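Notebook, p. 212. Picked up where the previous page left off. The plan for this session was modest: take the two constructs that came back from the sequencing core last week, fold each one, and keep the raw output in the notebook itself so nobody has to go hunting through shared drives later. Recording the first one now, exactly as returned: residue sequence, then the structure token string.
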Amino acid sequence: MVKAILDMIPELPYFRELLIAFFTGAAETWARFISEFAPGGLIDEATIEEKDLAWMPATNDVNEGALGQFRVMIHRQPQLTLLGHNAIAMYFCNDTEAFMKERFTEKEDHQFLHKLARESTGEEKKRKKEIVDF
């Protein structure tokens, strides 16, 4: 790609000015980004626990978004169904744990939920078989 651009430079009369403008603007932005790493900056002063809490992937990789999350989950748990994946995603997205701690106070609540889960798993297995048999 670099060679192709270098070959095209004679046909791009404002290439040099454009490149200088790009790097000038980038230098201003880079100064803002790296200030967090300077001695006494936010990252420099953060504890190990704070750094662990703030961790995130360094790049926008193929595992971003709902489809990427599904791909990673299926790779880790090949037996997982789409229904199961969606239930797990909704559990974490909707803060279901807090809701359950507040509302699921009786043993019967949990038993009912387990019954629904077993039934839905059975229905999904039937659907998978119908698709395979098709």
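Okay, moving on. Second construct, recorded in the same format:
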Amino acid sequence: MIDNAKERNKWKVRITACINSSDLVSRPVSKCMAEVVGGILSSGSLQLSKISRCLKEPTRLHHTMKRLSRMLGTHSEITWAAETLLLNTIAPKVTQNMVLAIDPGDLNRAGSNKSEGLCQVRDGNKGDIVNGYPLISVVARCAKTKTTLPLLTRLLSSRRGGYKSENTDIMQTMERVQRHIECEPLWVIDRGGDRSRLWDFWIKGDWKIVVRAMNQRYWTWRGGFGTAQQIAKQLPLKHRGKLKPNSRESVRFGMTTVTLKEHPESRLSMIVVRHGKQQPLVLVSTQRVRGRRQGERLIQAYISRWAVEEGYRFSKQGFDLEKVQARKLSTLQNLVALATLAWGLLAQHQQDGKRLIIKAQRQKENKPLVFPFYTLLMGWQRLFIGAKSLFYDWWRKPKPKDSPMGDLFDNSDELSPC
């Protein structure tokens, strides 16, 4: 029990040190951020009722929920502060060998018709158009060390003030992340990024990008024009490579040079990968590919983008993102940003979090952790389940005990007689 108390104090110090490391927000707001981050990790949920219950304050649960709801709803700067803290902490750890995966997602809010700023989104699981909010997430992934670092997750709305388009949101998100990164890593985006507006932005800004091409545009190739699948049928696949660094199976792929009609002077590299019985995988990159190894690296870089999909799954399953009950847009944005900050805290200490892994009592002890955050989160919850309180004893001094009535007459003999 003493060891558990020491370990809990270490993690609480890490939370407070991370949030109080800069003067981005006032002290009451920073306390609220630390409480919500600790409550998210301890409860595994973004519901204010479960977060308040895990704080274990000696007050009524309704009062704690009301206080957190008021702070999250009125202080919209929490989102900006949480993003800045996460980028200042995680961005220096991004190296040139890592891949930055960016992907638009969605938050299904079909059962909440009175939420503020509700808009129409496409549900990625079912493919239906439902009420909800668009999400944008950026995750860094290293294929060799299998390290995943969350950098940013934003909840947006097309009905908010100053909204322009989804393309603008993607470009602004990439610029905000790149400003905090010293190197120039490779960016990877799925087929949803094959848009003319984004290609203009990437080519003019000399971005290092890999995009999965859709079959909805014509590329200039060998003096003619063709769609991605038309080029894939005619291109000879002369090379063999692996989809993953440690994979035993190899795939056939070919490389060629294409251009866009809008940018005939900018030469792009197209890689066609034949895998299984599915349609060939067609990738287009602003990087020049001059050999088999460079082509194989770009293929493996695109496969590494699964980390952003797993990040969405972790947010929705590990933190119950789709079960959040808040209706105010600023509250939802603050909760998503703080949940990403909580995920970043686990990612920052995923190498030295052996205590949490032991607490989780994993069944497969001999196999390495590919995506360790489910195990780390379970270990955190089991470690803090025996805590008397989370932060209440740290920030609020206990009230002095009232003296009994008998103490009034203990010194009666010292009183002077009448």
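Notes on construct two before I forget. Residues 329-348 form the longest helix (20 residues).
Flagging for discussion at group meeting.
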